[in-house]
Amino acid sequence: MTRSSATFPKNAWYVACTPDEIAEKPLGRQVCGEKIVFYRGVDNGVAAVEDFCPHRGAPLSLGSVKNGKLVCGYHGLTMGADGKTIEMPGQRVGGFPCNKRYAVVERYGFVWVWPGDQQAADPALIRHQAWAESEEWTYAGGMFHIRCDYRLMIDNLMDLTHETYVHASSIGQKEIDEAVPITKVEGDEVVTARYMENITPPPFWRMALRGNHMADDVLVDRWQICRFNPPSHVLIEVGVAHAGKGGYHSDPQHKVSSIVVDFMTPETETSIWYFWGMARNFNTRDEGLTKAIRDGQAKIFSEDLEMLEQQQRNILAHPDRSLLKLNIDSGGVQSRRILERLVAMERVEES
Fold first, then answer.
1. CA Rg, the chain, in Å?
2. What are phi and psi of 254, to 5 degrees?
3. pLDDT per residue over 92-137, tens digit each?
4. I want to staple 172 with a disulfide (CB 3.0 to 4.6 A). Which of 65, 164, 272, 322 is the partner?
5. Alpha carbon 50 to chain centroid distance?
């Protein structure tokens, strides 16, 4: 794959990992086709360089970190966060080529990387995540490696009709099919929303109602508001409120609501690192509830994993077949149009 043939924009911030993944040793991770090693450098700051030792080509991620410097695990070459070789036992290293370094930022509980033009990497372009900075919210999540095109996951998240079928035992219900989605585009943001009134809460939301000390055996109003922002971030406002109390706009004592956090980072054209989780602003100190919600989400997203990987295999096996586009696909279609425009702009800049 060459940069000009990529289906993803590279001049963008992607979630590379979580801080715990680099707490004890370097982490090798491929992002948008770039093999990168992430580690804690000088003053415990995050550093990222090409995962390639200039001596014999060994992955630097198989080495260690000493005094904030990256040490190759093959022959002991030591490299700084600027990609320059500092020293190597018994050798002169002044003429060694410099490795590519990557702009990297630790923010909102994640490590972000810019895999494209390093001169264009502006940390201000990382979209603000208010829930991650507020003491009124709590968050728990995880990460899956999924063998599928990142756009298939965006399609999945921007059309929640599949919940009725893929997640029938947890969050799915027939009323989702019956609620017409409303999609709008505001600049580079795509918003798809569904609202359902006077319905029975599905199992996951009954558990959440109980977790907020609310009745779970009454009818509710339910909402799903999916927000896509490039390159591959989807945040979904979800929740239920006791019916007749104002739905999405009801007072906090009448509802349970959360933000489903989804950051999809392409590894290759057909594989992703999927960072998922849920932020909530009710009963935030209940660790048991936090664990129950996280475990529930893990089960739900693992169901998506199997479906997406099998979908990808089918698509690769039938590259000439066109896929149908229905009204429920509007959110995904609009998101793809934005991505196509951004990728096309990068290709023009390269030429």
1. 22
2. -105, 5
3. 888 888 999 999 999 999 999 999 999 999 999 999 999 999 999 9
4. 164
5. 22
